[in-house]
Amino acid sequence: MVSLDQFIEDVLTEINNLRTKPGQFAERMQALEATFRDNNSRMRKGAVPVMTKEGVSALLETIQAVKNVKPMGALVLSEGLKRAAQSHCNDTGPLGIVGHIGSRETTLPDRLEPFGQWGDCIGETIDYGSVTGFESVCALLIDDGLPSRPHRNIVLNSRFKKIGIGAGKHNQFNSMICCVFAGDFIEIDDMPEMPVPQGKIEFGFDLKDWLEDAIKLTCEIRTEEEAGKITKRVKKYWEMSDGTTQVTEEVIRT
């Protein structure tokens, strides 16, 4: 898994890939069609599946929409916007808060104020649970369950010229990525520091070697100790996308 710093860089790269070469990005998205199942679940390599509301139909609609987008300029990274985005991740991630309002009822304009002055327009997108930059940007474009596609409209708004991206761990969805967009942004001289947390986006041992086409996992763990050594016997009950259940066993010695 990547570090949070690398996650931020990957998201920036993919957003600019999308904006400058939307046709190529749409072609890459077509490979995602094979990851959807009839029950609207989406399989992910090395991570738990995602249960979507709209299923593959939202993906196909998104691909067509992106194909119709005219290329636009790449976004310029703004340190002030980046720190504002990171402040929201650092605030809400450890608390498990979801949404654009901070733990102290702070809004996007509130978060921008300590770092500078925005101009023309501002917007914010937040994605939870993604493990790659490409997956995160696709999630924003698809906007599953939101018919007006607000995140897509922000990402593809040509009025935005600058961007700041923050990332962090989220205690409910494992990861979060926050992107703040602006038509212009002028940083102040003495901006507060807002460090990106150290560490990588990691998953527990029960997600290693996730069984293909499984959509849910339940574990029974029995711990045995002998001669000072601990053995864990893990029985895994996999709920498959076709409604059946498969059982596997794993022995972990420490």
Give your account of this protein's structure.
This protein has 254 residues and is an alpha+beta fold. 28% of the residues lie in helices and 32% in strands. The protein has 7 helices and 9 strands; from the N terminus they run ααββαβααβααβββββ. The strands form 3 sheets. A 4-stranded mixed sheet has the order 3-5-6-4. Strands 7-8-9 form a 3-stranded antiparallel sheet, with no helix packed on it. The chain has a two-stranded antiparallel sheet with strand order 1-2. Strand 8 (229-240) and strand 9 form a beta hairpin. Helix 1 crosses helix 2 and helix 1 crosses helix 6. The radius of gyration is 20 Å and the shape is globular. The mean pLDDT is 89.
| Overall residue-averaged pLDDT value | 89
Q: Major sheet, described briefly?
A: 4 strands, mixed
> How many beta-strand segments?
9
Distance from N terminus to C terminus (CA atoms, Å) equals 23 Å
Radius of gyration: 20 Å
Annotation field: number of helices: 7
The portion of residues assigned to helices is: 25-40%
Kindly name the structural category. Answer: alpha+beta
List keywords for this structure.
254 residues, alpha+beta, 4-stranded mixed beta sheet, 3-stranded antiparallel beta sheet, 7 helices, globular
